[in-house]
Amino acid sequence: MAVRAGDERWMRLAIGLGKRGLGQVWPNPAVGCVILRNGRVVGRGYTRPGGRPHAETEALAQAGTAAKGATAYVSLEPCAHHGKTPPCADALVAAGIRRVVSAMRDPDPRVRGEGHARMQKAGLQVETGCLADTARQDHAGFLQRLGEGRPMVTLKLATSFDGRIATASGESRWITGPAARRQVHFLRANHDAVMIGGGTARADDPMLTVRDLGMAWQPVRVVCDTGLSLDPKGRLGTSARDIPLWICHGDKVPQAARDAWLATGAVLIACQTGARGLDMTDVLHRLGQRGLTRLFCEGGGQMAASLLAENLVDRLVGFTAGLILGAAGRPAIGTLPDRALAEYPRFSLVQQRAIGPDIMHVWSRRQGDPR
């Protein structure tokens, strides 16, 4: 790749624009595009909610005739297939773009280098790999679904200093402060779906919505309830027609329970079961089949243990409070299978910072760890 002065600057802007679509564009990738002519930005765009229009289409529309002879910076290879909209690679050619810099190749079988090849064949100068590692982080969910058939899983844990989520009597509100809770809402907004277990749903009767951020959309709410025993008259059930609710359950549940939940407008997803309840690998693959790319898991302890036991957690986000509850407090994670220490998944620290009186720390699965 022939990197020119300024390429990384404009690609960083394109990647930043793409972030605006995270949580809203599934099953499509959240792409950003910047069009530069004579050192001036003449068009910018990002994939819009629902996955369309694509970033390139938005940027070209803004640039108009100024796109002729310009350079386009795109955070993922422009698409080359006809779907609900024409290929973006063709649109860039037709607009007279002279040079395209893309962060990375799109592994989607319908594209997979064809977008780059099509533009090169039309005479455009195409450069790839600019800030590829940075772009790959934002496209992780999209890439995970294509590569493994399941969404990227972020496990969130809000705990005391000694890793407890409640007192011995079950009191848990609030271990962390308002700033940390607001950050959790921001994280929900950047994922396609929020997932909890049936035990947490019964204990907390939560809404699982994003609040106080001025958002016009909501992530899908996913509840894993093996026996479909959750009361449909709770807050999740009574809001299911307004906010998407998917319930993953075992294949042996009473028809009456199915009928009651279907009447609320919830989507029921029958999944395989195992010794620990729902087979979480099967759950995630079924969610991937429905298009989810980024899944934010908020517990509880048994669900966290199930995901970790099957090596299905890709990122950890912890909020730690300066509070100690002791051994009688309820642990954040349930019992894991007994293994040799080297066989437990390890994560690498990505960032840490203060959030009000608490500490937020983000971890990513180490490359080469057992899956």
**Secondary-structure class:** alpha/beta
**C-alpha-based Rg, rounded:** 22 Å
Give the integer mean of the pLDDT values: 93
| Number of helical stretches of at least 4 residues | 12
Strand content: 15-25%
Instruction: Give the strand tally.
Output: 18
Task: Indicate the overall shape.
Answer: globular
Describe this structure in words.
With about 375 residues, the chain is α/β, with parallel strands linked by helices. The chain has helices spanning about 5-20, 55-65, 90-95, 115-120, 130-140, 140-150, 180-190, 200-205, 235-240, 255-265, 280-290, 300-310; strands spanning about 30-35, 40-45, 70-75, 100, 125-130, 150-160, 165, 195, 220-225, 245-250, 265-270, 275, 275-280, 295, 315-320, 330, 345-355, 360-365. The strands form four sheets. Strands 11-10-9-8-14-6-15-18-17 form a nine-stranded mixed β-sheet. Strands 2-1-3-4-5 form a five-stranded mixed β-sheet, with helices on both faces. A two-stranded antiparallel sheet has the order 7-16. The model has no long low-confidence stretch (mean pLDDT about 95).
